[in-house]
Design a protein that fits this description.
Layout lengths: L1 E3 L1 H10 L4 E6 L5 H9 L4 E3 L2 H7 L8 E5 L7 H4 L4 E6 L4 H13 L4 E5 L6 H7 L9 E3 L3 H10 L3 E11 L9 E6 L7 H6 L2 E4 L11 H12 L1
Parallel strand pairs: 2-3, 5-6, 5-9, 6-7, 8-9, 8-10
Antiparallel strand pairs: 1-4, 2-4
Helix pairs in contact: 5-6, 5-9
Length: 225
């Protein structure tokens, strides 16, 4: 897997340098920074800027690219014993998914389950999560209803973000809990809403009635921890 961008590459260099097979530098670095990279013991190759641009397919690589050994995808069984899980139901934008993963890691979530996407672009999520995906257990399950049924039988209470739900500030938060976040434009389907134990919402000021799903998810995760 190829990742690029200074922040996700440095995240791996600092925490998991053994996962980097080759580090590619597509720009000149200050001597101090280059010496620091050399001391990390990874294989470094300097490449021309045009080669870096081609490898990144014109993405914003900032001169840092790395071949890595990939992201480990967990099974739902591996997450079922953890107390706080976030479920993404039909969220398609990898920028939103990455931002949610990043917030989930920062706010103490124990695992993320991505539903409704057959082929998840993990390389893009590495970038949009700034590398947090390497520390946040993630599972990919196509059918969200299977996930909800499975978690319910395992003792979880299911919370879901809906416009007319109970104010998250006054909601009863259980120990084993799962938060379901819906599609960017359509939210949660009626079938998913029917399975919720606690529909919850964020009460808005000034009559404003919409937040980006990653922003709303971060607020709900913070209130539920």
């Amino acid at each position: 897997m190829l990742i690029y961008g200074k922040q996700p590459v440095y995240y791996l260099l600092e925490k998991y340098p053994h996962r980097i097979e080759t580090l590619y530098l597509g720009k000149d670095l200050e001597k101090k920074e280059y010496s620091r990279l050399m001391r990390m013991g990874v294989t470094i190759k300097r490449i021309p800027p045009e080669a870096a641009q081609k490898m990144a397919k014109n993405g914003n690589h900032q001169g840092f690219l790395a071949d890595i050994d990939g992201v480990e995808v967990k099974s739902l069984d591996a997450l079922r014993t953890k107390p706080f899980i976030v479920i993404l139901s039909g969220i398609t934008d990898v920028g939103n998914i990455g931002a949610i993963v990043r917030s989930a890691y920062a706010l103490g979530v124990d695992g993320v389950v991505v539903c409704g996407i057959k082929h998840l672009n993990l390389e893009a999520i590495v970038r949009s999560s700034s590398g947090a995906i390497f520390d946040m257990p993630i599972a990919i399950v196509n059918n969200v209803h299977d996930v909800l049924n499975d978690l319910k039988t395992s003792g979880y209470y299911i919370y879901g973000a809906v416009m007319d739900g109970e104010d998250i500030n006054s909601a009863n938060i259980t120990y084993k809990r799962a938060l379901v976040l819906g599609n960017e434009s359509e939210g949660l389907s009626n079938r998913v809403v029917e399975k919720l134990d606690y529909p919850v919402s964020i009460k808005m000021a000034h009559g404003f009635d919409s937040l980006n799903v990653s922003a709303a998810g971060a607020i709900l995760m913070d209130r539920m921890r």
